[in-house]
Task: structure prediction
Amino acid sequence: MSNMLIYYGAEVLAFVCAITFHEFMHGFAAYKLGDRTAAANGRLSFNPLRHVDPFCKVVLPALLLLAGMPVFGYAKPVPFNPANFEDPRKGELVVALAGPLGNFALAFVGVVLMLVVSMFQGIFSGPLGAFVFLFPQLLTLINLYLMFFNLIPIPPLDGASVIAPLVPERYLGVYYTIQQYALPVFMIVVIVLPQVLHVDPIGWYLNATAVNVYHLMLGLLI
Result:
């Protein structure tokens, strides 16, 4: 039981770090592009409570954890006003990509921590040693999961915002109309298909992307 608690504690902490930094990067990118909406709403913060969404940051990850699936989710969208950008469509693209790129940077930090831990592995023992050993691995993997998961082009994920600036203006109205009905499809793909039909396209996608990149990073840096 103690080993399970250590594992889940490390997993939850890694997830909180990943999703908090992800949302901070959205707000920071918007701020650097001239929009202070996120700052005015207190979202330029490393405090996880500033970004909590009760379902997407607590309930959904808990359900996935209990189901034995990869833990991922998302927080309250960081508010920003594209009208404050010099180029609104380009700015929206940059803000959308900032979150996943922040996760990639944090995954790299996790790999570096793994390297450091491996150099001083004799110092730690017992539960603390187990936690120190597990946390960098989970920090890396969960950040990669979150990065690739959020690049899926289904609202409210960042991939939808990445696609939007690339859609010709005459089709934007249709695109945003379709987005309004995308959340139920998203929930079916993430939860219903794996649990009811035992078909897990998201799991396949994450194994092909996040897991392979995780092993590639380990091979290059450790």
